[in-house]
Design a protein that fits this description.
The chain is built from two helices and no strands. By secondary structure, it is mostly helical. The model has no long low-confidence stretch (mean pLDDT about 75).
């Protein structure tokens, strides 16, 4: 399921402002949009939810039940 959200670009971040931040390393341009989480939750009708969770790695395999 997809939804369209119209936003206005407030600016383009430079290198020193994490303008090339990406979850995956890449050699090319980063195509990322930073949206305030509260705005995204409101527009999608998903309060108290997130679209990405970052978990630090460890030597042992991750326990999916422990992450819940």
């Amino acid at each position: 399921m997809g939804r369209t959200i119209r936003l206005t670009c407030g600016g383009i971040l430079g290198l020193n402002e994490l303008g090339e931040f990406a979850l995956q390393p890449s050699q090319g341009s980063v195509l990322a949009v930073f949206v305030p989480l509260t705005r995204l939750q409101r527009d999608l009708g998903q309060p108290a939810r997130v679209n990405t969770v970052l978990v630090a790695s460890s030597p042992a395999p991750a326990d999916p039940e422990g992450l819940r």
